[in-house]
C-alpha cells in the first residue's frame, strides 16, 4: 500500500477525437476507473437529445386526501361547525405543505391558497378576526392573482378590527391585482364610509 503522503504523478492521455482518457500505468484499479469514466462519457454523448428525464408524477393519493380534507371542512362549515371545519382545513394544509420538493410548486400553491382562504372564512364566522386576517394574507402570499376572496377576507378582518387605514390600503392593493372585482369595490366603499364617520 502506498503512503498517503506520497504524490504519484499518473501518466494520463486524452484522445483528441474521442476524448477517451488512457494511461500507460499497469495499475488494475486505475484501468478499471478509467474504463468506467470513459463508458460514462460515451453514454452521455450518445443521448439522442439533452432532455432531462420526465418528472416523477404527483402522488394521486396525497392529492385525493387533501381534496377530501378540504371538502370535509367545507361540509362542516355549511353545518355551522366552524371549529371542526378549521381542524379539517389545518390537516389539509399540513398535508399540502409537506409535499416532496420535486412535486410542482404551482400545485402546492393552489392547494395551500385555497385551504388558507377557507380557514380564514371559518375564523371570520367565529369572529376570530386576527386569525382570519393571518390566514387570508397567507392565502394571498401563496397566490396573489385570481384570489379575490382572500383579498376581500383580509380587508374585512382589518375593517372589523377597526384598522381602517390598513384595510383601505389592503383592499386597494387587491383591486390592483384583481381589477375592479365587485366584492372588493363594495368593501372599499364600506371602509371609506366607516372612515368618514370616525
TrEMBL record:
One GO molecular-function entry: Hsp90 protein binding
Signal sequence interval, chain numbering: none
InterPro entries hit by this protein: TPR-like_helical_dom_sf, TPR_rpt
Listed GO biological process terms: protein folding
Coiled coil regions, renumbered to chain: none
GO cellular component: cytosol; nucleus
One Pfam family from the record: TPR_8
Protein name: TPR-like protein
Organism, scientific name: Glarea lozoyensis (strain ATCC 20868 / MF5171)
Amino acid at each position: 500500500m502506498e503512503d498517503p503522503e506520497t504524490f504519484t504523478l499518473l501518466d494520463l492521455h486524452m484522445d483528441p477525437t474521442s476524448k477517451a482518457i488512457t494511461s500507460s500505468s499497469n495499475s488494475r484499479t486505475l484501468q478499471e476507473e478509467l474504463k468506467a469514466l470513459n463508458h460514462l462519457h460515451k453514454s452521455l454523448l450518445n443521448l439522442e437529445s439533452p432532455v432531462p428525464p420526465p418528472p416523477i408524477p404527483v402522488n394521486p393519493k396525497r392529492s385525493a386526501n387533501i381534496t377530501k380534507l378540504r371538502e370535509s371542512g367545507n361540509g362542516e362549515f355549511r353545518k355551522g361547525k366552524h371549529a371542526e371545519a378549521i381542524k379539517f382545513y389545518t390537516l389539509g394544509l399540513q398535508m399540502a405543505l409537506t409535499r416532496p420538493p420535486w412535486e410542482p410548486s404551482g400545485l402546492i400553491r393552489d392547494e395551500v391558497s385555497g385551504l388558507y382562504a377557507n380557514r380564514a372564512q371559518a375564523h371570520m364566522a367565529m369572529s376570530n378576526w386576527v386569525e382570519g386576517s393571518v390566514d387570508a394574507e397567507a392565502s394571498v402570499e401563496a397566490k396573489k392573482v385570481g384570489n379575490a376572496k382572500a383579498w376581500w377576507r383580509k380587508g374585512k378582518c382589518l375593517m372589523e378590527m377597526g384598522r381602517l387605514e390598513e384595510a383601505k390600503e389592503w383592499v386597494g392593493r387587491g383591486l390592483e391585482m384583481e381589477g375592479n372585482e365587485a366584492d372588493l369595490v363594495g368593501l372599499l366603499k364600506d371602509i371609506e364610509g366607516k372612515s368618514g364617520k370616525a
